[in-house]
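Working notes for the structural subgroup meeting. M.R. asked for a predicted model of this chain before we commit to crystallization trials. I am recording the input and output together here so anyone reviewing the notebook later can reproduce the run.

Input as submitted:
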Amino acid sequence: MHQVKIIAPPVSTMENFSLSADPVRDILLRYRKVVVVGCSRNPEKDAHAVPAYLKENGYEVLCVNPNADSILDSPTFHSLREVPEDSMEIVVIFRPSREVGSIAEELIRENKIPRVFWMQEGIKSKEARELLEKRGVQVVEDRCIRKEHARVFEPRGKEYAEILKFARTYAKAKGLVLNPDPEKLDAIIMGLVENQRKHGYRYCPCRMLSGNPEEDRLKICPCRWHLQEIAEMGHCHCGLFWDPKAIKI
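Returned structure, recorded in C-alpha cell form:
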C-alpha cells in the first residue's frame, strides 16, 4: 500500500489563525479578491501588468478607473463607491502618495473597510496608515504585490502556483472558500504538490493510497467525498475547501 502524507482534519471553526513570520505571505494566501485603484488600460504600465499577473495567478481582480468601462475583462468601476462591499479584501493603490489619504477617507466614508490596504512601490501615506490601522486594516506601504507574490511562491515551484490557482478557481465556482488559516492552507497545498510530484496526480493529502488506480482516482483533489463532507462538517476532510458560513473570523 502506498502512503501519502496525512494532514489531520481541522477544527470546525477558524476563530484563531496561526502566527506567521511573514504577514505578506499570509495576506497573499488568505485573500482572493483584489480591488485595484488606478488600474490602467495601458499594457505597458505597471498598473495594468501587475493586476494582469494577479489575475493569471487565480486572484479575482476588480478595477477602479473613472475613465474606463472595461479593463482586463474584469469588473471595472468608476469609483470605490460602486465596488461591492464583499469584494473589499485587498485594495491595491496605484495613485500618487498625495492622493492616498483621500482614498482611505473615502473607504471609511463609504463604510467599505478592506482587510488589507496595499500601496505599491514608491507610494506611502502616514495619514492613510493611521486612519486604517485603527480600524483593524493591515496596511502595506511601498511594496510591489507582484514582486512579493513571486518572492513568496516561486521558490515553492510551479506546481504550487498551479495547484493554488486550481483550488481558488474551483472554490469560486462552487461558492466555497479556501482554508482561512494561511499556515494550514500552505501545508495542504504542499501536501498536494508532494503527491503531484511523487505520484503524478494531486491526491488528497489526508487519504491513504491503495495502489489500485481505479480506487485511488477517487482521491484526486477535489476528491469523491469532499462535497458531502462540506455539507456535514462545513469543510472537506483535509480542510482545503470550506463552506463560508462555517468560518468565524
